[in-house]
Amino acid sequence: MERDSFVDAVASIDLSGIAQKQRAVRMKSDMLPAKERPRVVTFIQIQTLRAIADLTEELGQPPLLVELADTLGITANSVPFRLEALEKHGLIERRAGESRSLKVTAKGRELLANEIKGGGN
Question: Which of 4, 50, 55, 95 can bridge 63 by disulfide, Cβ–Cβ 3.0-4.6 Å?
């Protein structure tokens, strides 16, 4: 399969049935060289992104890392790893050293909107 047609096929995937589709994409992407593999947003990353968006709306400001950890039921030490992954996908922005600087990007809001429309969890 040519790279462009593969990337188009991956881009057209609906977010419903996330786990099944992630497995399919991983199986197909294993055939590509590492640098050309598409980045897949995981269920946990979507869950974290959703928590950031919901807490920001609820609190009227971005959450503290400890608030995000409490909402997700994880330790505060785990949060930076999740945020780094979301930044790499371009789904959030944050300013180093600033409290409450998390911001869901337009790309992140679009992903969340599609996730709701597509019936994904």
Answer: 55
DSSP labels for 30-65? TTS-GGGSPPPPPHHHHHHHHHHHHHHHHHSSPPPH
CA distance 51 to 1: 37
For residue 91, CA distances in Å to 6, 31, 33, 41 come to 22, 26, 24, 10
Residue 71 has pLDDT above 90, yes or no: yes
Q: CB 104: neighbour CB atoms within 10 A?
A: 21
Reading the block at residue 112, the tokens are: 């969340």
Look at the chain and count its residues: 121
The amino acid that residue 109 corresponds to is R
Could you give all domains of the chain from N- to C-terminal order, each with its CATH number?
3-36 (no CATH), 43-117 (1.10.10.10)
Query: Is the overall model pTM greater than 0.70, yes or no?
Result: no
- For residue 33, pLDDT beyond 70: no
